[in-house]
Amino acid sequence: MEHICEECGRRFGNAGALATHQLNRHGRAARWGANRRALEATLAELRRAEELRSVDAARVQLVRSLADAVDEDHTNAQLWRTYREALGGLVKEDDNTDSFTKLLAEINSRAPVGHPPEA
């Protein structure tokens, strides 16, 4: 898979070389917030595991834009929810529900955390 710098069009053989180029040539990573940096690390791992394909490019760009937006407005709950859903579309989750997903379910149910609603 070939990696192309969005700013100058230079081509690289792997994501690591592209990231290094973007940092050194364009100073891009210095402008990224914590969520964008974490997302880029996640994307690099997904590429390493060959779980991303070129057909995922639009979805990757969507999640990048949302990560940047969350970094800009970290108090916007709807934005966080949208970002998490978009990220979940890229990252395959296990069948086992993790504690963060359980917490979100409890919050969304409007029940006190740790006390799911009774059926």
Walkthrough of the structure:
- By secondary structure, the chain is mostly helical.
- It has six helices and two strands.
- The chain has helices at 15-26, 28-31, 34-48, 57-72, 77-90, 99-108, and strands spanning 3-4, 11-12.
- It has a two-stranded antiparallel ribbon.
- The longest helix is centred in the middle third of the chain and has 16 residues, at 57-72.
- The radius of gyration is 17 Å and the shape is globular.
What's the SSE blueprint?
Blueprint lengths: L2 E2 L6 E2 L2 H12 L1 H4 L2 H15 L8 H16 L4 H14 L8 H10 L11
Antiparallel strand pairs: 1-2
Helix pairs in contact: 3-4, 4-5
Output the helix-strand order. EEHHHHHH
Question: How would you characterize the largest beta sheet?
Answer: 2 strands, antiparallel
Give the strand tally: 2
Mean pLDDT: 79
Task: Please give the share of residues in helix.
Answer: 55-70%
The N- to C-terminal Cα distance equals 50 Å
Q: Beta-sheet strand percentage?
A: under 5%
